[in-house]
């Protein structure tokens, strides 16, 4: 019995041992033309065995890169793409920046940051003041939904100032007026609840009327 530990190391295990053996056989061919012809066939086979790669951008280029890796960077063929160097493959990806909203501010969401950037770019005037009011009101609603408690306006003002890096400052105000959006939302919710209650009352009345009618017939 032959154990995997005694076999050739798989450079890319997701392609399996059959493709690895084909690559090794390709390297043993005598002429470059033969190796190139077989390499093209192997790349096509790799694409058939891994159809999900077709959804990726430049999947053919990636297949040829994978072929070169399977060959341990030792394959003399005419490739339609330049093979990657060892340095390129060993290069570490760039460090990803963490989202700006962290800690006490994560529940506000990215849309608030986008609105803040829009407000900062606007020139001073009624439009900018109105947008800042909308931002502050939405921040207050988000805070109340996430924390399940009432928040003082000065807390929202301080958060807005911090998120805008001191470029939007409402800390001079005493309180925050509710925006029309806030009122419209609440009014719609109240109307919905009132309509549902009226419907329930009507249904109960119909049930009592039907019950009384059936009792009279009996």
TrEMBL record:
GO molecular function, one term: transferase activity
Keyword Lyase: no
Residue segments, region Disordered: 186-218
Biased composition, class Low complexity, residue ranges: 186-205
Pfam families membership: DUF4290
Comp. bias intervals (Basic residues): 206-218
Assigned keywords, A-Z: Transferase
Entry annotated with the keyword Transferase: yes
Superkingdom of the source species: Bacteria
InterPro entries, A to Z: DUF4290
Protein name (Swiss-Prot/TrEMBL): Methionyl-tRNA formyltransferase
């Amino acid at each position: 019995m032959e154990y995997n530990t005694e076999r050739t190391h798989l450079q890319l295990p997701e392609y399996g041992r059959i493709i690895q053996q084909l690559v090794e056989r390709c390297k043993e061919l005598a002429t470059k033309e033969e190796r190139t012809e077989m390499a093209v066939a192997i790349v096509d086979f790799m694409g058939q065995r891994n159809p999900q790669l077709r959804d990726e951008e430049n999947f053919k280029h990636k297949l040829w890169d994978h072929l070169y890796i399977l060959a341990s960077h030792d394959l003399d063929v005419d490739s339609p793409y330049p093979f990657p160097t060892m340095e390129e493959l060993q290069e570490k990806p760039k460090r990803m920046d963490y989202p700006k909203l962290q800690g006490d501010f994560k529940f506000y969401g990215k849309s608030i940051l986008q609105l803040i950037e829009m407000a900062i770019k606007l020139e001073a005037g009624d439009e900018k003041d109105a947008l800042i009011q909308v931002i502050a009101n939405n921040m207050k609603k988000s805070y109340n939904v996430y924390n399940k408690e009432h928040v003082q306006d000065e807390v929202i003002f301080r958060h807005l100032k911090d998120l805008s890096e001191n470029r939007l400052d409402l800390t001079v105000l005493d309180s925050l007026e509710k925006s029309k959006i806030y009122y419209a939302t609440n009014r719609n919710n109240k109307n919905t609840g009132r309509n549902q209650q009226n419907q329930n009352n009507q249904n109960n009345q119909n049930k009592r009327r039907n019950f009384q009618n059936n009792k009279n017939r009996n």
